[in-house]
């Protein structure tokens, strides 16, 4: 119905933007009709006529049957359909990306396969973790919007058929469980094709844990890690370490706000009540938390969504109103009415606090003293990371902060009360990186610029953004760059891995040695020793040691990446 109107618009304005000329518009009615039928879908297609060939792919249609294999888990299909619907608002991005090469992509979440998948489904029905499933669904929807051809596999037998050689997939997204299955399916070809793998890794894998021989010799061997991949092939839920690629997810509310939904979903239909919702769907998470929750309940009505088995003794205090395990729909309804989302200390680093903040809740969480790590915490023990976790959700604490995030000493009643009094009216807030646009830009940037199948040094980002910093003793490059409001960029390490880099910083090296060490390039004041990296897989933003001053490749926290036919857009890693 808008075809005639659009034709008249382009007759008058076809020279207003150079992209029209790129798609062959020259002012003639024929070229305008071809553009409006082949590119923007405002006019009926001209069957049987191929006016010209252009280097673009058609807009993706949201037919998730094309995306999902028939052996998918039954609980996955409704989620991916929902996420695809929510992403539709970003379809206007597709005309920006029309010159992208269409890739053949295999999605294989090993944690959902076989007996492990059955356990996962049973846990979901009893309040188990949804974060990984949300991330897989968002990745599926994102790749669909970007126009790539997806195959979803959720069985090892289907994987064996899909991974037959020669491999026809340009990219394979999997997880740690899936890597083991892929190695079994591909045999000796596994190493040949491993540059095409992208590993969804919730908590991150630092380079020191990644290289098998090095990890074994230096005490970094764990149940995870030791796959010898490029560290940027590991894709995390939050930006834990710049050594890995931050994949992220999309906040539910960020997606819902851009859709025309039923009235009951609309945020303006909800009035904020003086209530708190506690983050903890399983009973064991409440153990030992009664005094903390009691302080909150004295100030504000407290609600929970805990799965409970009848006849079992519960850790849930009697003064808390429990709604039982809710669907995501009803859980979001409850959050829209609440003023505070209360963290109990576990689960760590999930997506729910980001969604609560986007719905106008302030997130109240425990401070960990001392910080939790693999040295003192069973959950992080064995994880391939040396991170020190200062709170339940370090990302929310550090990158969002007050007034949306309050981190308190849960044993200090006054600290809790002061935080609650300060939380009067909090506006909704969604970090750009957790919006539909943010994730699409990020994934598009990775697909366009990341290549691990070549021995050549990385060319993205450009050396122009490099800011070399020499850190103090004992600090990682993550800390060194952050101190200057910058971000450590591991792809730029090779520019500093030369003797001239030390000279430019005014350092005199009595010895310069190449070594395989996750702490180099670095400077050791005692003996004025300058260390250079011998093994590129060990370039690490995370490594630190009291005897080393790390030489760090820092850049601004927002990386500008030029997409086709588009001004500079932000791909945020911060």
Automatic annotation (TrEMBL):
One of its GO terms (biological process) is protein N-linked glycosylation. The chain crosses the membrane at residues 91-111. Residues 19-554 form the Glycosyltransferase family 18 catalytic domain. It is a single-pass type II membrane protein. Pathway: Protein modification; protein glycosylation. Keywords: Glycoprotein, Glycosyltransferase, Golgi apparatus, Membrane, Signal-anchor, Transferase, Transmembrane, Transmembrane helix. GO terms for cellular component: Golgi membrane. It catalyses: N(4)-{beta-D-GlcNAc-(1->2)-[beta-D-GlcNAc-(1->4)]-alpha-D-Man-(1->3)-[beta-D-GlcNAc-(1->2)-alpha-D-Man-(1->6)]-beta-D-Man-(1->4)-beta-D-GlcNAc-(1->4)-beta-D-GlcNAc}-L-asparaginyl-[protein] + UDP-N-acetyl-alpha-D-glucosamine = N(4)-{beta-D-GlcNAc-(1->2)-[beta-D-GlcNAc-(1->4)]-alpha-D-Man-(1->3)-[beta-D-GlcNAc-(1->2)-[beta-D-GlcNAc-(1->6)]-alpha-D-Man-(1->6)]-beta-D-Man-(1->4)-beta-D-GlcNAc-(1->4)-beta-D-GlcNAc}-L-asparaginyl-[protein] + UDP + H(+). Its EC number is 2.4.1.155. InterPro entries: GT18_cat, MGAT5_Glycosyltransferase. GO terms for molecular function: alpha-1,6-mannosylglycoprotein 6-beta-N-acetylglucosaminyltransferase activity. It comes from the Eukaryota. Coiled coil: none annotated. PANTHER family: ALPHA-1,6-MANNOSYL-GLYCOPROTEIN 6-BETA-N-ACETYLGLUCOSAMINYLTRANSFERASE, ALPHA-MANNOSIDE BETA-1,6-N-ACETYLGLUCOSAMINYLTRANSFERASE. Belongs to the glycosyltransferase 18 family. This is alpha-1,6-mannosyl-glycoprotein 6-beta-N-acetylglucosaminyltransferase. It comes from Gouania willdenowi. The gene is LOC114481798.
């Amino acid at each position: 119905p808008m075809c005639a109107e659009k034709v008249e618009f382009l007759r008058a304005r076809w020279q207003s933007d150079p992209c029209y000329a790129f798609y062959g518009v020259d002012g003639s009615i024929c070229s305008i009709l071809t553009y409006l039928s082949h590119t923007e879908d405002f006019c009926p297609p001209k069957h049987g006529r191929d006016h010209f060939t252009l280097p673009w792919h058609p807009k993706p249609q949201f037919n998730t049957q094309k995306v999902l294999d028939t052996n998918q888990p039954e609980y996955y299909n409704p989620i991916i359909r929902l996420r695809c619907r929510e992403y539709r608002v970003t379809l206007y991005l597709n005309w920006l990306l029309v010159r992208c090469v269409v890739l053949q992509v295999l999605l294989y979440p090993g944690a959902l396969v076989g007996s492990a998948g059955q356990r996962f489904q049973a846990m979901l029905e009893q309040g188990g973790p949804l974060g990984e499933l949300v991330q897989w669904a968002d990745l599926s929807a994102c790749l669909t919007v970007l126009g790539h051809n997806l195959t979803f596999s959720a069985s090892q037998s289907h994987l064996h058929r899909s991974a037959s050689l020669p491999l026809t997939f340009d990219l394979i997204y999997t997880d740690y469980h899936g890597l083991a299955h892929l190695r079994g399916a591909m045999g000796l070809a596994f190493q040949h094709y491993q540059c095409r793998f992208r590993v969804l890794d919730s908590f991150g894998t630092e380079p020191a844990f990644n290289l098998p021989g090095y990890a074994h010799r230096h005490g970094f061997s764990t149940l995870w890690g030791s796959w010898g991949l490029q560290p940027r092939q590991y894709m995390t839920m939050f930006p834990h370490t710049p050594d890995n690629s931050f994949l992220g997810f999309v906040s539910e509310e960020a997606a819902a706000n851009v859709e025309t939904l039923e009235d009951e979903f609309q945020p303006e239909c909800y009035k904020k009540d003086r209530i708190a919702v506690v983050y903890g769907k399983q009973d064991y998470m409440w153990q030992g938390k009664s005094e903390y929750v009691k302080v909150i309940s004295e100030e504000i009505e407290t609600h929970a969504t805990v799965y409970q088995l009848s006849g079992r003794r519960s850790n849930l205090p009697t003064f808390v109103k429990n709604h039982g395990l809710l669907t995501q729909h009803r859980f979001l309804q409850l959050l829209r009415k609440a003023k505070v989302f209360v963290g109990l200390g576990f689960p760590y680093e999930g997506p729910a606090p980001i969604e609560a903040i986007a719905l106008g809740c302030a997130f109240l969480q425990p401070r960990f003293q001392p910080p939790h790590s693999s040295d003192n915490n069973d959950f992080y023990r064995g994880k391939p990371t040396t991170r020190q976790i200062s709170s339940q959700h370090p990302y929310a604490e550090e990158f969002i902060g007050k007034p949306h995030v309050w981190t308190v000493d849960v044993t200090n009643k006054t600290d809790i009360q002061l935080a609650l009094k300060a939380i009067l009216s909090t506006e909704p807030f969604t970090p750009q990186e957790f919006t539909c646009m943010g994730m699409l830009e990020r994934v598009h940037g990775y697909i366009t610029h990341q290549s691990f199948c070549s021995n050549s040094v990385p060319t993205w980002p450009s050396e122009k953004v490099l800011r070399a910093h020499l850190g103090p003793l004992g600090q990682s490059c993550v800390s060194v760059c952050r101190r200057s409001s910058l971000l450590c960029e591991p792809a730029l390490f090779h520019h500093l891995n030369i003797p001239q880099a030390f000279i430019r910083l005014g350092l005199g090296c009595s010895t310069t040695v190449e070594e395989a060490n996750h702490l180099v390039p670095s400077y050791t004041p005692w003996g004025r020793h300058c260390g250079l990296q011998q093994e590129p897989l060990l370039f690490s933003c995370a490594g630190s040691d009291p005897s080393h001053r790390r030489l760090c490749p820092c850049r601004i926290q927002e990386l500008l990446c030029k997409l086709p036919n588009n001004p500079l857009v932000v791909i945020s890693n911060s």
